[in-house]
Amino acid sequence: MDQLRIYTLADKETAAQYFTANWAKHRINLPKFGFEVKGVWIGNTPGIANQVIALVSFPDDGDADEMTERYLKSAEFAADTAGFDRNKIINIETKILRSGN
């Protein structure tokens, strides 16, 4: 299944930093926890310029919440976010998507 993740950050500059620096690392480490990163985008219109949007997939029998929790508690996540003020992430919205096929 797929999961859409929408990260709303404090401002456009923080979103750009998170998109460039942190997601480059997440792309490497998330697969170690069972996720495939299908794409990551940054908002390009005024209303969403402070958002980073990612599409990840995980096994149909996987528990995305449990997998995410393992990643958030890992040394990899700590390294991925070192030097980044996580308080600048205002909101995280997730949506599970299923193909119509």
From TrEMBL:
Matching entries from Pfam families are given as: NIPSNAP
NIPSNAP domain ranges (all copies): 3-98
> Matching InterPro entries, A to Z?
Dimeric_a/b-barrel, NIPSNAP
Q: What is this protein called?
A: NIPSNAP protein
